[in-house]
């Protein structure tokens, strides 16, 4: 076969595969969004769910998802940042570092159900946090930490060594060079990584079923004292999230409009995750442009 | 003229590999010294021992004595931060930080705690003028330095060093990544600076050395073969290796 022809065939096949994947994705997203769209109104997004009668919303689950996301990021971002900085800027190239890297790699490939069960045993039972936002946030931290650490480490590694030399040559200490030059330079890419990980956290269900729990007790949105049990901010209350809610309705939902609620909730979930992804690209790019004036 | 920097029998080892084999060179205050020699002759290695930039490479050993204004810079009590403010460095690849031109030049002073806006403004303008790039960037001070041309970036990097008032400026092939026009602008910048600063520059470009340097040191295989007035090196070298090198017979 002549090279020109084989090149053409290979090209065609690759285009075909790529097109097929895009088609599946588009069909899936289209189906979820179109079937869910009729449900999307203010009432649905803000009212609590109903267990036995039609007309329930997803207000509490939606709030829970965002609150859990916030707490998870508050816990995991500083740790991942520290770990990423250590691994890329300070860690000597020896077997200890290699063990740490391998451990992170393995942790990042753990199935989320396993992370959830681990979280159940440790946080819910051992530490006696019960089914709570806090248990869920810790479990999600385990789930999120390896990938976020990797992504931060890669963001830092992408900054040229000439920048580090420039800092040291100006008389900055290593720590000053990292915090005043390398981190700002890597910020757009770090932020993109954080937002992408937010999308993963937001859609996660399996790790939360046994940690944050499957119930969404009524909340009093006028009470912002985190120590009150009905306060939305209370981290010790059980908190079913949107993703867990969808799983639960589909496995044991008995409300008459279960199918519609599930479709609506799925659409909200998918749209949220899409927004995170678009936001990540947009903010990362804008920030980078601002920093570099690159057009 | 007073001697500002002395080096005595300096050896540098990367692991077991001896890259510098006993260099003794002195530098007078002010003027330009060019370090020439084939690739791999350890010009960069030597330059980087002068502000201790080699310290950060794992497995490096430096022996011998280097003294700046009479003080051993490898003494344990040396303040590296203070040393590198006195002995600034410009690299082959222009490396402005991804901030505005102004922030780049003000960077060193801000780290040192200077917050007064007027004082910073004055230093930034003065440094950019000295680096002969003020006219080109004065309307873009708050735009990113990365948007400038390579030659402008390099002069901003020179200004960034000048802003912390160094005594010595080390340059490692500062023009080899630049086009000829930008290179000659850097050369004229250096020629203006030679009145006020001690400049030590590595260069691959022999014409450049002959155009700008007062003194030239010829490196080969980790040793200094010959060091003398630039005119003498180019017109009437004492050693055969030097003559071979400058007449283009190798390197
Ligand atoms: N970081 C390093 N690790 C190990 N060897 C190095 C390192 N830097 C330079 N060398 C070696 O030291 C010698 C001199 O290199 P260098 O100082 O860069 O020469 P030049 O600047 O004259 O081209 C070369 O043999 C080079 O391979
Ligand atoms: Mg070199």
From TrEMBL, chain A:
Q: Name one Pfam family in it.
A: BPD_transp_1
Membrane-crossing ranges are 12-34, 66-87, 99-123, 129-148, 181-202, 260-280
* Domain ABC transmembrane type-1 residue range list: 62-280
Q: Which domain of life is it from?
A: Bacteria
Output one GO MF annotation.
phosphate transmembrane transporter activity
Q: Name one GO cellular component term.
A: plasma membrane
Name its cellular compartments.
Answer: Cell membrane
- Give the UniProt keywords, A-Z: Cell membrane, Membrane, Transmembrane, Transmembrane helix, Transport
Gene Ontology BP, a term: phosphate ion transmembrane transport
Q: Membrane topology type, per the record?
A: Multi-pass membrane protein
Give the main location. Answer: membrane
Q: Which PANTHER family match?
A: ABC TRANSPORTER PERMEASE PROTEIN YQGI-RELATED (PTHR43470:SF4), PHOSPHATE TRANSPORT SYSTEM PERMEASE PROTEIN PSTA-RELATED (PTHR43470)
Q: Which NCBIfam families match?
A: 3a0107s02c
For this chain, the family text in UniProt reads:
Belongs to the binding-protein-dependent transport system permease family. CysTW subfamily.
Output this protein's name.
Answer: Phosphate transport system permease protein PstA
């Amino acid at each position: 076969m002549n090279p020109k022809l084989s090149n053409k065939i290979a090209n065609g096949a690759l285009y075909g595969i790529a097109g097929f994947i895009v088609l599946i994705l588009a069909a899936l997203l289209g189906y979820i969004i179109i079937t869910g769209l009729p449900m999307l109104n203010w009432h649905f997004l803000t009212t609590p769910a109903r267990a036995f009668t039609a007309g329930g919303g997803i207000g509490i689950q939606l709030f829970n998802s965002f609150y859990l996301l916030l707490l998870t990021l508050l816990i995991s971002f500083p740790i991942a940042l520290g770990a990423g900085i250590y691994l890329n800027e300070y860690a000597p190239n020896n077997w200890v570092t290699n063990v740490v890297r391998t451990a992170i790699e393995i942790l990042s490939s753990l199935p989320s159900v396993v992370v959830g069960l681990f979280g159940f045993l440790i946080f819910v039972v051992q530490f006696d946090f019960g089914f709570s936002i806090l248990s869920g946030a810790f479990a999600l931290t385990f789930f999120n930490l390896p990938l976020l650490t990797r992504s931060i480490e890669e963001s830092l590694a992408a900054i040229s060594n000439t920048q580090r030399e420039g800092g040291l040559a100006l008389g900055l200490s290593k720590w000053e060079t990292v915090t005043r030059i390398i981190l700002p330079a890597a910020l757009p890419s770090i932020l993109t990584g954080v937002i992408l990980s937010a999308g993963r956290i937001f859609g996660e269900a399996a790790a939360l079923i046994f940690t944050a729990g499957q119930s969404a007790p009524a909340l009093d949105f006028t009470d912002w004292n985190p120590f009150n049990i009905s306060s939305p901010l209370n981290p010790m209350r059980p908190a079913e999230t949107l993703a867990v809610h969808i799983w639960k309705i589909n496995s044991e939902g008995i409300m008459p409009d279960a199918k519609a609620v599930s479709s609506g909730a799925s659409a909200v979930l998918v749209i949220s995750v899409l927004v995170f992804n678009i936001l990540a690209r947009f903010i990362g790019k804008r920030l980078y442009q601002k920093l570099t004036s690159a057009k | 003229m007073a001697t500002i920097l002395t080096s005595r029998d300096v050896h540098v080892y990367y692991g077991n590999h001896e890259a510098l084999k006993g260099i003794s060179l002195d530098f007078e205050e002010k003027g330009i010294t060019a370090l020439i020699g084939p690739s791999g002759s350890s010009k960069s290695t030597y330059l980087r021992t002068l502000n201790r930039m080699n310290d950060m490479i794992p497995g490096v050993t430096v022996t011998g004595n280097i003294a700046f204004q009479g003080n051993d810079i490898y003494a344990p009590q040396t303040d590296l931060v203070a040393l590198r403010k006195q002995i600034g460095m410009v690299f082959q690849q222009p490396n402005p930080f991804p901030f505005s031109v102004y922030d780049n030049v003000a960077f060193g002073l801000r780290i040192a705690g200077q917050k007064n806006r007027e004082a910073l403004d004055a230093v930034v303008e003065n440094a950019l003028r000295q680096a002969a790039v003020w006219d080109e960037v004065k309307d873009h001070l708050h735009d990113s330095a990365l948007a400038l041309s390579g030659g402008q970036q390099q002069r901003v990097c020179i200004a960034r060093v000048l802003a912390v008032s160094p005594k010595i400026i080390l340059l490692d092939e500062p023009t080899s990544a630049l086009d000829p026009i930008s290179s000659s602008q850097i050369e004229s910048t250096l020629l203006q600076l030679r009145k006020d600063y001690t400049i030590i520059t590595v260069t691959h470009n022999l014409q450049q050395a002959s155009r700008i340097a007062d003194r030239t040191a010829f490196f080969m295989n980790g040793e200094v073969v010959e060091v003398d007035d630039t005119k003498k090196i180019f017109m009437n070298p004492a050693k055969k290796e030097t003559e071979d090198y400058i007449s283009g017979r190798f390197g």
